[in-house]
Structures are given as structure tokens and as C-alpha cells.
């Protein structure tokens, strides 16, 4: 079992993906102890910093937990849907992208509440309607979701936010497709919750509540990220 | 006096730039009252939302202040150096870019403190040394500054932060060039302060103080932004 | 119509309370324009800063909105339940207290995720069970809610957080009683949502996700605050 | 060597204090390795969670650092002045109090920028003048410092912030006295820096820059905290 080094930066991702894959397909089960750092180094022929990076990400995603003095354990298994909807090797990329979005979009939502014009608010409101309809039809959520987030970025009055979002467009839409794929298979309750998170953001922007808008956007992306990695579909 | 519409989005910037120019060259002086919204609409033949957007930015930059019920007043005059170092029409772009950087880099600094490897820390430390030397030689600060911020982004372990930074590269370097141009003409005290802000960031990353690193980076960019628009060179 | 000055600080609150009362009892309706600042000054015989303070709070609570150049308008009517459950004159106090809690408890939740011991986590988990049971029984929610928040503060490992919470105990419990009174009359959906917000906080503390815990706590208190002032019971 | 248990909560503090004392008086030196958790448990006859709590605080204060797989090491020695100015056993209390202040005062500064009246701004400005004069006279800084922070809290328009500050009054003033004692012995540069941090806060409140005011206050308290525990007087 050896990782094929592409670029140095990507080794940690590959290792992350391989361990994640074993958790998803059940070779590693909840409560199982992971091999030690040295064992992983040897098994995958990677350096210790690479192993630590992969473990730190698994930890950040809530997939493994550390018990002081006794190593790392599998904490939870992500949704089986996840593997049906995307190649495991891409999941690390999706999560990295969400991390950047949390930084960017918290701010664009906050600024949108401060600066949005009435026409910009109208675009956001219409995007929300389209998103609601797409949830009812159970199709088109990804496009509608992206349009909503782009409308909020545009309402920040700072074109650089839109530019960066468009630059990340492919990855963001892929992450959204995965998340909505899981949601579509999930309960009504879950779809309602996703819709409501968007409504709280839009409502704060409407009321010019800058802090609330930033907070609601951050919370929405935090929960989205959890929905991707979490086994419980109804999260 | 009419603004030539390029793209709709840019009208507010142009208006911002024109008013800023009048403040910088002294046609509008500290304490002067700006024309009313309607007067500005008429003078520049732009819509009311465009005027409001421009005023809101001038306000956010601390250049004008609002006295409830009696309009907007010039609060302070930015450095005369500013106009020597960049076309006024670009200043709005520089400030927009800094706004996005505050969101992105607060987070990359925070994550760098959590995840940086020893080699990544070494790169940051070396970038700090190069920056210190450039301040002493009074040349090369812009390259050294960018290298420092890129090293921090790389240490976040998330390549998307580096990718976005590189995407914004030109504008960031231009903003840094302007800021360092002003600093170079300024007091020793000012150069020491800029250097120290970078040291506080690096020190927090070294100590794995995630919250401190994010806070110090955010504060550094906040002060940088003020140094660009502020008339007082010793800020 | 004249306000009886108690202590200077409280005048703004009294005025806030009187305007709020008129909104609640329907004398001022959604979309109605408020009298101008000068008219309010004259009607209540208070100074302009007092009027502005009261308006700013009504604005912050999302009860009135400002249309530039044309004054303040009633945006929404808080729950009629609110007036049954507390004297209007106390609402300002409840909201003030929540404002302080948002600052304090975001931090205590964040620190709890970093520092909690296993016994402290057990206390939080038990408090959550008691809260869930109280929602099912539809009684005892206030005590259970306070016990949960106190358990989180204790898990921060910093006794000062607990001390300050206990110092504010009376007001906090009163605010909780009002909120739960409204929830009790509300839909099943609403009770489920309140319960879920607490679960997200506890789950993040369990996973030692410091940032998530702070975010989830802040979001919970933000939504609680909205539930107090909002007319829509199902918020 | 055994700790006398007062209240359970305080055991971690006592242990923290004892280890800190050994670092200050030089029994433990920079680069020295601390005994293992088990050895500390045995030496002080305390439980493992108590040891971990103490280590985590020393770590948070940047006094010790952890090298994965090989234990904890002394990172830096706090100022010798610290021990002259306060009993070591109180330092933990001072730091705990600062932790709560960071949460509270970031918010009160932010709200002050949004809501302050002109008279409240005047009180802040005068407090700043008194603080500046006290630095020049090298006496009275503690009272002046507290007056400044109280004036900011009052300008938040929320009396609960003032109430909580006054409730913590004794501990805050003691922490300030220690910090100013160290500053007084330090360089001119250091006093200038402390003064400047206060000015940045006041300036943001003056310009109604809410986000800047919160950020500047948080940064000021973060740096104050570092100044208490750091050996380098010129921080």
C-alpha cells in the first residue's frame, strides 16, 4: 500500500482520502483504533508530517477522535450516500473549499446587510423563491443554491467577492451537488432545515442586520459541512 | 461633470474616486460639508443608489462622517503621498481587495497556527527575516510582504487559500506597494510598527495560538487599510 | 404624555418600552410611520439622544426599519404572548441581558470545547436529557435551560464565567421563562428547533470543536432573542 | 509536595501557580522538559484531569509548549517583575479575569461605536486624556485605565456591561496594577504602545466604526494578557 506522490501538497489529501474510504466502506468501524503514526508512515510510505496533516483533517471533520496517551479512534462514519455521489478522493477538496467559503461568505453576507440596494435585495429574494421551488420539485437545487450565494456576494457591493466565488465555481457546485444529493435522499425535515437556514440569512440581510447576516451564513456553511461528512442523514 | 459609465458595478467606484480626489487635492477640506445626495446625483448624473454606495464607502474608510439630520462632512484627508503613488481611480480597487483579504487571511492565519508543520514555520520565519532586512534597506518590502502572507496561507494546509491569494496577486501587490511607498516616506516609528504587526502574527503561529494568530492578522490588515487612507503618515 | 425620569440611563428604556407597547397592542401597526424625532422629543419631553437611543434599540430588535430620508416605520409586531408573559417595561431589560449573554456564552462554549473534562461533559449531557424531558412534559424548561447553560460555563474551566452568569441569574431566568412561555404555546416544530439548537452546542463540545461550539451557542442566543421579539410564533 | 485542596475548582489553579512559580524563579528553565503527567500526579497528589487543566493553561499562556510524542517543555519565562508585583497564586485569577473581559469588552466597544451619544464620547475622550497624563506622570495609570474601559462600557448603552465590569472591579484593577507596574519599569516604547492601543479603540468609537472598535479592544486585551505573562518587558 503506497501513495503515488503527485505534488507534495496533495499527499496529505490522498492519505486522508484513503483512510476516509476505509471508514466509509466499513473496514474501519466506529470505536476502532487507528494504527499509530509510525505504523501509518510505514504502511503508506509517507513522512510523519503528512500523516499528522491527514489525521488533523479527519479530526477536524469529526471523523476520528484523539484520546490522550492512547491514540486516535474512529468517531463516526460518514453517510454511505457520500461515496455514491462523489469519488472519495474528491471529498478532501470539497471540504477545503467549504473552509474558504466560510471565511468569504460570512463577510459578504455581513456587508450585504450593510450595503445592499433594493434591486440587489430583490435578486436575493427571487433566488430564495427559486431555491424553495427546487426543493419542492426535488430538482435544480444546486443551481438555485449557487445563485442564492452569488446574489448575496453581489449585494456586498464588492465585486471581488463575486470574482473569487466564480473562480471557485466548479468546486463549490460539486460540493453543493453532493450535499443536495444526500439531502434529497433524506427526510422532509432535513430539506426544511436547509431551506430555513437560507431564509434566516436572507431575512437578516433584509433587516440590515449585518452581524446577524454574517452569523447566519457562517452557521449555514458550518452545518452544510457537517451534513457532508456525517452519517446521520437527518442532521 | 459626468461619469462615463463603464460597467454598472463600477459607477460607485468612479464616484468614490472623484470625491476622494477632491478631498486629497484639497478642494474639499476637513470639516467641509458634502453636497446633498440629490445635488451629487445631479452633478454626476448618477442614480441615488450609486451615490449612497459611494458615500457609504467614504464613510467606511473614515473619510467622511454623517451628522444625523444634517448630511455628510469631510472627516479627514488621506495622505498626499497616496496620490503620488497610485491613480486615485485605483484606490477603490485597493480597498475592495483589502476587504476580501481581511476575511481570507484572518482564517488562513488561524488555521496556520493549528496545522503548520515545522518546515512551513521555517518558511514563515525566513520570510519575516527577509521583510525585516527589506525595511532596513528601504527596498524590496512589497515582494517580502507578499511572500510572508503567502507563507502563512500555505501553512494553513489548505491550498485553496494560496490559490485565491495568487488569483488576487496583482491587486494585492499594488496595494502593498502603495502602503510601503507611504511607509518609506514616513517615520522610523511607523516602519517599526508595521514590522511588529507581522511579528505578532508569526509569533502566534509559532506558539500554535490559533485565535491569537487570526486576531493579529485581522488587526494588521485593519491597520494597513487605515494607513492607506489616512493622512497621518505616522499612523 | 411624559416619562417620569428615574435614573438618566433608564429613560431610553422607558421610551423603548412605551413605543414597543404601542406596537404590541396595535396602536402602531406594521408599515405605520413613527413620529419624527422632534415630535417624539416633544411628546415624551425627553432629549434627542434619548429618542435616538430608543429608536436604535427598536431598530436593532428588527421592530422598526429606517427608510433613508423619510423616517422610521414599524417593521413587525412582536408576539402578543410577549405581553401576557411579562410587563413590557421589562422587555428592554431582557434584551439587554441577552446581549451580554451572547458575548459571554459564545466564549464559554468555545472554551468548554477546548477544556472540558469527562465529568463536566457528563453534566452537560445530563442537562440536555433533562431539558429534552422538560420539553416533552411541557414543564420545567426554564430550570433545565439554565442548568444547561451553567454546565457549559462550568466546563470552560474558568469560574468567572459561572460567577457572572449566576450574578445575572434572575434576569436570565426571567428571559428564559418568557421565551419558553411563548414556545410552549407554539408549534411542535418550534420546540423541536429550540431543542436541536442546544444539541448542536453540546455535540460540538463533545467533539472538542471549539469554533463550532462558540458559533452554535451564538446562533442559539441570536435565535432566542428573535423568538422573544418576533410575532411569528413558529420562528 | 502536596496541594491543599480548597475547593475542587481551584486545584488546577494552585498547580498552575506552583509550576509557574518554578518557571519564574528559574528552577525550571527555558527549554527544560516538564515531568510527565503521571509524575506530576504523583508529586502533587492530584488527579490527571487537574494536571491536564494546569498544563493546558500554561500552554494557553505560551509558557510551555508540547512536542508531540515527547511531552511538555518550558517555552518562556515570564517577567521577574511579575513576582514582585503580585503573589504567583493570584496570577491564574488575573488571567481568568482577562479571559472574561476579552469576551465582554470586545462587544461593549463594538456597541459603543454604534450607539454612543456625544456626551458619552466626551467622557471617553476625557478618560483618554487622563490616561495619557498618567503615563507621563508615571502614576495613577490603574485608575485612569479602569475609567477608560468603564466609559466604553457605559457608551454601549447597555447598563449590564457596566454592572458586570463593576462586579469584577477588584480583580480587573489588580490585573491592571500588575500590568502597569511592569510597564512602568519598561521602556518608553512600551508605554507608548499601550497608550496607542487605547487610542485606536477610542478613534474607532469616534468614527462609529463598530467592527474596528471591537477588533481594537480585543487586540488590546490580547496584548495586555501577553504583557503580563511575558518575560520580555518591551512586548
UniProtKB/TrEMBL annotation, chains A, B, C, D:
Keywords: DNA-binding, Transcription, Transcription regulation. Signal peptide: none annotated. The keyword Glycoprotein does not apply. It holds the Pfam family GntR. InterPro entries: GntR_C (IPR011711), TF_FadR/GntR_C (IPR008920), Tscrpt_reg_HTH_GntR (IPR000524), WH-like_DNA-bd_sf (IPR036388), WH_DNA-bd_sf (IPR036390). Residues 9-77 form the HTH gntR-type domain. The keyword Phosphoprotein does not apply. This is FadR/GntR family transcriptional regulator. It comes from Teichococcus globiformis.
